[in-house]
Records
---
Amino acid sequence: MTLIVLLIALVLDFFLEGMEKLRNKKWWIQFYYFLENKIGHHAFWSGPLGVLAVLFLPMLLVILLQVYFDYWSWLIEAIFSLLILVYCLAPKKLDERLEQYITAIETENTEDKSKLESELIYEELATGENIELDVIKSTYIEAQQRIFSVIFWFLLLGAPGAILYKLVSILSRELTGIRSGLVDSLFDLLHILEWPVSRLMVLGMALAGHLMDALNAWRSAEAISLDVNNKVLINGGQGALQYEEGEDASEDKAYWIKELKSLINRTLIIWLVVVAMMTLSGNLG
């Protein structure tokens, strides 16, 4: 059933229009600031207990609903899980933006290209020296957040796992650049949630691209720290892609972006094949 729900969620996202409009994030950001105004002055707020306080109500609601629906009908519980997964899992948006970026490069539409770069590039990864490389690095991170982390935690913990990662990810992006005990604890939780995903994603990209280069790049970036997740992911991805800065590998100006898009899609397919094999072997529900 888990695999079926996952496949349906992917099909709905890719083939139904307007799905992104249903993924309203404002309620969650507003809820956070509401709690901050109400209880932010208490000592416990600045630390792990503050993160727990923010996540407690939405997580409790999802868990109670899942238990309730599962008690009455497995079908209703499956539909509930599907709705949560559709809200959290959003591969089409990234795929569309990469395709639009490719088109903007090929048609030399500088206005659209600049607009898409501002959307695709993460501020903390922006160097301004090589825009193409900035886009590629940011895409690895966004693919992890939009696709692979959601899938991993859904497979492990069901709907509560998917929504937990999504809520932590959204809030982390909102509070980037802010220093406080709560924000530090929130990023610690994000790093914990992403630690296994970044490694499994590199393995998937290694199988989808250049195996040894990806694994060697992973080893060179690995360290006993939760802060190296993005470095491991980016280095492993670059090894799998075999991106070489400044190389004119093709007359196609968008060559590396097309290769990147293809690599992400192949990695997703490999993940789905592994999930299918685990389901058929009885190791996954």
---
Amino acid sequence: MKNLLEFRNVKYFYQTKESEIEALSGISFSLDSQSFTSLVGPSGCGKTTILSLTAGLLTPSSGQILLEEKPISKNDDRIGYMFQRDHLFEWRTIWQNITLGLELQGLKKDEKKVALAEELLKKYDLYTFKNKKPRQLSGGMRQRVALIRTLVLEPALLLLDEPFSALDFQTRINVCDDVYSIIKSEQKTALLVTHDISEALSMSDKVVILSKRPATVKEEVLLSFEGDTPLHKREDARFGGFFEKIWRSLV
């Protein structure tokens, strides 16, 4: 399927005590299957609102949002969401954290899902930590656990809401590589919201640039860099030119 996700002229208004505010004004873009797309734009322009609409947490005022050619629904189980914090429960083991979604959906005894959880832990070097508590893991390992917890539910689309923003710069670079490699290895489609232009460029096949509120799509920038990891892509000679192009569009 070429268009896994499609926004069709989506508008969104929210109410304040004084007035009705237009947050999004006719947003249209699409994500190809197994692609990685980033949303960038001025602070407060509505990037997280777009993720919330995609996740079914909000309902568009008008327009359509289609996933696999079907409308998004509330709490749509085709969608996985990674937040700014890893939201691991410190009193639960890594295994208990990873299987939390299965537990909540009544799938804790689903042999196929449990086998997938074990497979992912082994594949991404976390199996020996399955009985540890989150506080015993590094920041990068915690983010891998959070991602695997999402992947166990086998979503069609991953939403990433600045999942690296709480990490120091060096850890952030390494975790970007980890998360990118896992998403590509599992052949998932991802939509990332970030304020970091370099992060957007290094991880994405496409960057969607939003205007200030009420947000519209100013431009979609298609990318193709040398290198198989975000870190290596940053070394591409064209990287600086794309950075300047997006930065100028934002300012």
---
Amino acid sequence: MNIVCLDMEGVLVPEIWIAFAEASGIPALRRTTRDEPDYDKLMAYRLGILKEHGLGLKEIQATIATIDPLPGAKAFLDELRSITQVIILSDTFEEFAKPLMEKLGWPTIFCNSLEVAPDGEITGYRMRCEKSKLTTVKALQSIGYDTIASGDSFNDLGMIQASKAGFLFKSTEQIKRDYPQIPAYEEFDDLLSAIKAAL
């Protein structure tokens, strides 16, 4: 029994925060989990910048509405889902992910949720569980699944290394250098072939 666990941002869709940094003209918001391994530190940094500029959920959702999946992502996901079970494991939030899931044909996603004030200010966030990707992979393994995982960032390494097969996809040169033992791919066809071989 196999199940494939995929990261979302940077793998299937562009990075939401980078898109919002460009739309808002705030370069500091370009920082992602590729740059900062500590997610709580990263989110505290982001929420501080949003508050400083008076930006909230509405503005971010307006940017997300303009984001399309990466070229080839939906076809890749469709083919993968035709041969095995797939779950997207993301540290993003339900409030961000929904329009993107629609464009990808409603795959299953496990993610987190935001705390939003009545005026739309994002005041905090709730993680599903600690080390959510690794914890989820271990939970799936505990109920009889062999996991195959792929992602691009620091927060994907745990689930990749804990799985029977794991792959970096569209990752940074630094992460690829630091983890040369993890096969790294840039094209969906190559990733699909690697996953098929691992099934």
